[in-house]
Design goal:
Length: 211
Amino acid sequence: MRTNKSRLFRLKVWGENACFTRPEMKVERVSYDVMTPSAARGILEAILWKPAIRWQVERIDVLKPIRWESVRRNEVACVMSTRTRQQFIEDQRQQRAGLLLRDVAYTIHAFFRLTELAAPEENIVKFQEMFLRRAEQGQSFHCPYLGCREFAAHFQLIPWGAPTPTPICESKELGYMLHEISYAEKSPTPHFFRAYLNQGSLRIPALGVPS
């Protein structure tokens, strides 16, 4: 019987700004205090995504104090239509406020499992080596980002056996946090979990398991 779970990987990610948008904020962009599991998985999938594997984030360590930045930005209120020959941007421009995180850094602890789409000849070792090679060389399918595409994420693989960066010394309730949005049903279904930051570490329960 082949193993369908990989070893645990540790990836350090950082950037100047981040916005892990709260879905309950309809218009204004307001970030969660900490990176969400879906955002962390998005960074891992930017480095290595295959139909045969699915990433599962186990823990997120916050490496820098949580700092906020309030901004106002001009955004376009509609999507450009190919049917419209002429569209005046000024007529569709809206000014919106945003509450972002600044100067962020995290350590993502995650592993992946083989899915039902994995071919018989595919195995865990193959994908582990692919991820290690790509992460070590700084390769990605697209630029990873911190919640929003405009906030690029830098990343660095933490070698196996090497010490991980020390999280911040802070514990606090974070309330209900978005775990992920499932597209298995007819309409997208959001899943939440009760998040708690314990000495700078956020533990992520498996989807469907109470936190």
